[in-house]
Design a protein that fits this description.
The chain is mostly helical. Helix content is 53%, strand content 6%. It is built from 19 helices and 10 strands. The strands form 4 sheets. A 3-stranded antiparallel beta sheet has the order 4-6-7. Strands 8-10-9 form a 3-stranded antiparallel beta sheet, with helices on one face. Helix 4 runs antiparallel to helix 5. The model has no long low-confidence stretch (mean pLDDT 93).
Length: 524
């Protein structure tokens, strides 16, 4: 099994995916253990002083003005976890919770949180044991980070609440910890707060969405190429010199992919045969421009994610040496400073950007599908690609399904990050709603896969109905693989949902792109 070693300088997106989706094991580096120990010494020294220090010897949020005496501090840290574990609604997916916990561990190991090494090791042990805290859909405002979701994770470390075991059964966390030889932690000064105060949930979902969308944008180039071919469009608009004079990187990559898929096609270039067309419709001709803009949006979101992966998000943070510049507290080799780095705006914005791009990509794919089904615009194809139009309805309702998905995606594209509801008695008076942006993006990504699957299914049938014309070798490979996956070809009406489900799985697990790349070589 793959092992991810967590140090002090952050982790990679590949590390997150390995832990979240492939159950990679986690180890703490010696460097991380040393940094944890050094930061803890600073916190312990500050805790011994009579002056109040936020997060160490005070209450939290709007209650930060109360100085907490030493005998109540363990109770304070325990209470913040219990009280903040206030989520409600359906359970969040296992991969999201694992990403959330792993990214919190990444920040803890930075040496800027003041958490003891044994707490960090317990976080790693829980993940390695396959124990997944029960985290609920609602509860995070994205500032101060993903408080409620992270609190449910911290509750499991304490041996409280519920968690899912490696067998998928939800049980009391104390039982699961005991079965795996993991001792519950007793949280000391600052530790409860340090486990809750980060953008880890929204960041984890961003990283997974980026991985999924990267594959889907390549899939979209393939389905667009098949639709262009099925509509007897021209591939001249994909010429590299046309895209060089508008040098957006994503646009050039999408055009190159489409051109590679269409190489050797006997269907392209027939747009003048029966009904002269000066140009193809925008949904065909502008496919690289729309998909390319989405690719460039992905690139920007990836940059934000990389910066967050290199960050240590907590409040307050432990800094080495020097005099305090604000209301922080200093002790010997370091100091503790309050800050606003927990605000989720940078992540929330790009999550919303991606939802907008995904909705537009789905929209243009649906327009191509509709064109394939309309006898007045499909250039010789039967109505709805039906076997006996009138007796058979063909793919009429498949397009309805696609339209319903696109309509939902347009609603999901409304930004969450423009909203803000003040909380904590107006102390936290502006929040990012980044968790909400991430949750709706996950739905949008799933829907985009389905939309592209329906376009693929329709375009494949349309190409097969073009008798006497030979599709591109890559196209033939894709259609053959699709049929082998269980999505049947043209013929009389049949129960259609299983075919669409097979096409959805074919796109989702990467078989579409793999079948094409077996002919074209690697696509961009």
């Amino acid at each position: 099994m793959h092992t991810v070693v967590v140090g002090t300088s952050g982790v990679t997106a590949s590390d997150v995916l390995a832990v979240a989706r492939a159950d990679a094991r986690i180890e703490l580096s010696q460097e991380a253990v040393a940094a944890l120990t050094a930061a803890r010494e600073i916190v312990d020294a500050l805790a011994a002083k009579p002056e109040p220090v936020y997060g160490v010897s005070t209450g939290f949020g709007a209650l930060a003005t109360r100085h907490i005496s030493e005998e109540l501090r363990v109770q304070l840290q325990r209470n913040i976890v219990r009280s903040h574990a206030a989520g409600i609604g359906p359970r969040v997916e296992r991969e999201v919770v694992r990403a959330l916990m792993f990214l919190r561990l990444k920040t803890v190991c930075s040496g800027h949180t003041g958490v003891r090494p044994e707490v960090a090791q317990t976080m790693a042990d829980v993940l390695n044991a396959g124990i997944t805290p029960v985290v609920h859909e609602y509860g995070s405002l994205g500032c101060s980070g993903d408080l409620a979701p992270l609190s449910h994770c911290a509750l499991t470390l304490m041996g409280e609440g519920e968690a899912e075991g490696p067998d998928g059964v939800v049980r009391p966390a104390a039982e699961l910890l005991s079965e795996h030889g993991i001792a519950p932690v007793e949280l000391h000064e600052k530790e409860g707060l340090a486990l809750l105060n980060g953008t880890d949930g929204m960041l984890g979902m961003l990283i997974m969405a980026l991985a999924d969308l990267e594959k889907l944008y390549t899939s979209a180039d393939v389905t667009a190429a098949l639709s262009l071919e099925a509509l007897l469009g021209t591939d001249k608009v994909l010429a590299p010199e046309l895209h060089a004079i508008r040098p957006h990187p994503g646009q050039g990559a999408s055009a190159a992919n489409m051109l590679a898929v269409l190489k050797g096609s006997g269907l392209t270039g027939h747009h003048q045969d029966d009904a002269p067309r000066v140009q193809d419709a925008y949904s065909v001709r502008c496919a690289p421009q729309v998909a390319g803009a989405g690719r460039d949006t992905l690139a920007h979101a990836r940059l934000v994610a990389e910066r967050e992966l290199a960050s240590a998000v907590d409040n307050p943070v432990v800094l080495p040496g020097g005099a305090s510049r604000s209301s922080g507290a200093e002790s010997g080799g370091g100091r503790v400073e309050s800050n606003g780095n927990f605000h989720g705006a940078p992540v929330a914005y790009v999550l919303d950007f991606l939802a907008i791009a995904a909705a537009d990509l789905a929209s243009i794919a649906e327009r191509r599908t509709d064109r394939l089904l309309d006898k007045n615009r499909s250039h010789g194809l039967p109505p709805f690609l039906a076997d006996d139009a009138g007796v058979d309805s063909g793919l009429m309702i498949a397009q309805y399904t696609q339209a319903a998905l696109v309509s939902e995606m347009k609603r999901l594209a409304v930004p969450a990050s423009v909203d803000s509801i003040p909380s904590s008695a107006m102390q936290e008076d502006h929040v990012s709603m980044g968790w909400s942006a991430a949750r709706k993006l996950r739905t949008a990504v799933d829907n985009l896969n389905r939309v592209l699957a329906i376009e693929l299914y329709a375009a494949a049938r349309a190409i097969e109905l073009r008798e006497g014309l030979t599709p591109a070798p890559a196209t033939r490979a894709a259609i053959t693989a699709l049929r082998e996956a269980g999505a049947e070809g043209p013929g009389p009406d049949r129960f259609l949902a299983p075919d669409l489900a097979a096409a959805d799985a074919f796109v989702r697990d990467g078989r579409l792109v793999a079948s094409v790349e077996a002919v074209t070589g690697a696509l961009q």
